[in-house]
Amino acid sequence: MGVASRLILGVAIGVLLAGGALEMDPRAFLGFFVVNLLYGIFVWRASDRAGVELDWLNLIFDTAVMVLLLRLSGGAVSPLGFMVYLWFFSMLLANVQSGDPRSLAFMAVIGWLVFALGSGGREWPRVMAVNSVGLGLFAFGALVLLDERRLGRLDPLTRVLNRGAGLECLAEKMRRREGFELAFIDLKNFKAVNDAYGHAVGDQVLRVLAGRLLASVRGRDLVIRYGGDEFLVAASGSGLQKRLRRVFATPLSVFGRRVAVQGDVGLVHWRSEDGLSLQELLDRADAAMYRMKYTGVREDH
Q1: In the chain, how long is the greatest CA-to-CA distance?
Q2: Total count of domains within the chain
Q3: What is the pLDDT of residues 95-108, one digit of tens each?
Q4: pTM reported for the whole predicted model
């Protein structure tokens, strides 16, 4: 949650408290409001410099906040129980990009722990049983929604990330300070393939090539269709150039034909200490690709 959402949360709870819909010690509410707002300001100021550690800190802090709110406002029968569901769903949308079952299960367990630690009393078993069912339904709904979201992020022809979604993922990698190699790939003479065999074969060439690119990288790496016959590949570690050479080493099998396809590859490296923006990184990769295209010289940066 950012500064605005934390401020809205505090004001909403204050309105419920002032209207008599919520029982909470006003001093405890004031302490919660101040600490929550100060933490939001800290996250806002630190987000540009922090990496994945800030995501974990947010999860721990927000979990503690939800537990504290339940404890301060009635535990198992707290009117703020619905806040846990809103927080749970927003965390799913923010952190589970592709409906990964393991991440989804992890978030569901966190939501269950919030209720378990924030609740108490004689009605605890019944309330926990109800909330367990509720969290399960929320997780299932999130899985369906995230799967639809994932499909909307894919290029309809090649089924790799489309340009918009791919650049978002690259920006997220940079925000999390994950070092990676970035390859800008431009297919050589792809127009000749369309002219010789027709656009149906050309489309299938792109599909098969995209499949090879996906097979050449790891699960958390990215393959992006950047333009008509242009792709971006972002991979952690090293050796991406060698793997891409293998991708183009043998002809593609397309509708019973063997179609030889080559690509000009511009390769650059990104590290958090370089201080490059996403656009600057793309410009460097594009320039490296053009050097390869017109001079045959491959330069790794």
Answers
A1: 78
A2: 2
A3: 555 556 677 777 77
A4: 0.64
